[in-house]
Write a structure and sequence with these properties.
By secondary structure, the protein is mainly α. Helix content is 82%, strand content 0%. It folds into two domains: 54 residues, no CATH class; 72 residues. 3% of the residues are buried.
């Protein structure tokens, strides 16, 4: 190999893959044809085969039982947190939908009763609509504050929401 063009004629990247036995049939055939004509690559593929055999002869490292136990605990913890997060999101979605449904239902009921009984409720109960609106606003603000406090608590505990 005297220059760049000589190096390009040698499929060096395929030699290690051939020694490991991971080439497909077309690549094997192409490399076999090249090896019949190239002594340099034949020598190199022999070196790669020796290295591959030495690596196969090595024993796989043994994992410490403590490391395996810590890893399993960490994986179980992450899985539990994900499950809890999914449950919390589903429960929050249900509660929001239930809250809005209840609000609209009570509002419609109030309108129905208020319209049919308007002559009976004129007077001190005439501002019941304002009381109802105030009640809804305070309820939603309190729910938002509770959600914000729970979110801060979860962040303080170091869990992702």
């Amino acid at each position: 190999m005297t220059g760049r063009s000589d190096e390009m004629d040698h499929p060096a990247e395929l030699l290690a893959l051939h020694a490991a036995g991971v080439l497909d049939a077309a690549e094997e055939a192409s490399l076999a044809a090249h090896l019949r004509q190239c002594a340099v690559c034949t020598t190199r593929v022999g070196e790669w085969r020796g290295l591959a055999q030495a690596l196969r002869a090595q024993q796989a490292p043994r994992l410490s039982p403590a490391l395996v136990a810590r890893t399993l605990r960490a994986v179980e913890s992450v899985a539990a947190e994900r499950g809890e997060r999914a449950w919390n999101r589903a429960a929050l979605g249900f509660l929001i939908a239930f809250g809005w449904t209840l609000t609209v239902s009570v509002w419609l009921l109030f309108k129905l009763v208020g319209g049919a009984m308007r002559p009976l409720v004129e007077g001190p109960l005439a501002s019941a609509g304002l009381w109802f609106a105030g009640y809804l606003v305070v309820g939603w603000v309190a729910a938002g504050a509770a959600a914000a406090m729970l979110g801060r608590r979860v962040q303080a505990e170091g869990r992702a929401v």
